[in-house]
């Protein structure tokens, strides 16, 4: 069942630029995969299933890239700050194709029933970025660095949404 859900959601992402993070995009993704439109019932969380899938997929791609850059965390990063900046930039670039629909995604994430999932995805990603940048601390600074990076990522995302200049990603 999970493989079918992932297949449908992957296909549905192609429809997000036109239909947003909606059940309609999921229906179109299901039909594109050869499933009947009623299969959207597999997604009781509606468009948030698509948002969560996108975040998970992008986060996994970024973590894979960070693993490759650091030999699975074994190679020390020469400039941790630059590494963090590049990781945030890479993650923001994944948003670019969906920028016009991103405010709807933000609205879905802000709903109370989805907050825990969305927060867990952000915090896990931030922890992974910090880990691969070389942060192996176990002190109180561990928390402040991760909260700081999460704040920077979300502020960058909000700025990106308002930036209308050419090549803003």
Automatic annotation (TrEMBL):
The COQ9 C-terminal domain extends over 116-167
**Keywords, ordered alphabetically:** Lipid-binding, Mitochondrion, Transit peptide, Ubiquinone biosynthesis
Keyword Transit peptide: yes or no? yes
Query: A Gene Ontology molecular-function term?
Result: lipid binding
Query: Which PANTHER family does the annotation name?
Result: UBIQUINONE BIOSYNTHESIS PROTEIN COQ9, MITOCHONDRIAL
Q: What is this protein called?
A: Ubiquinone biosynthesis protein
Its biological function? Membrane-associated protein that warps the membrane surface to access and bind aromatic isoprenes with high specificity, including ubiquinone (CoQ) isoprene intermediates and presents them directly to Coq7, therefore facilitating the Coq7-mediated hydroxylase step. Participates in the biosynthesis of coenzyme Q, also named ubiquinone, an essential lipid-soluble electron transporter for aerobic cellular respiration.
Native species of this protein?
A: Drosophila persimilis
Q: Which family does it belong to?
A: Belongs to the COQ9 family.
Q: Does the keyword S-adenosyl-L-methionine apply?
A: no
A GO biological process this protein is involved in?
ubiquinone biosynthetic process
Which GO CC terms are listed, alphabetically?
A: mitochondrial inner membrane
The pathway this protein participates in, as annotated, is: Cofactor biosynthesis; ubiquinone biosynthesis
Q: Where in the cell is it found?
A: Mitochondrion
